[in-house]
Amino acid sequence: MRFHFKTDYDQDIRLFEDGWTFSLYAALLVLALALPLMIDPFFLGEATNVLIWAIAGLGLMLLTGQTGQVSLGHSAFMALGCYSCVLMMEANVPFVLAFLLAGVITGVVGALIAIPALKLHGVYLAIATLALAILADDIIVLLKEWTDGVNGKMSPPIDLFGYEISRWNNPIEWYYLTLAVVLMVTLFYRNLLRAPLGRAFAAVRDSEISAQAMGVNVAQTKTIAFGISCAITGLGGALMGLFAGAFNNETFNFLLSIQLLMMIVVGGLGFIHGAFLGAVVIAFLPQVLSMTTDLFGRGVAIPGLESGVFGVILILFILFEPMGLYGRWLKIRTFLELFPFARKDMFKRQKSYLKTERLR
Question: What keywords are assigned to this protein (predicted)?
Answer without folding.
Answer: Cell membrane, Membrane, Transmembrane, Transmembrane helix
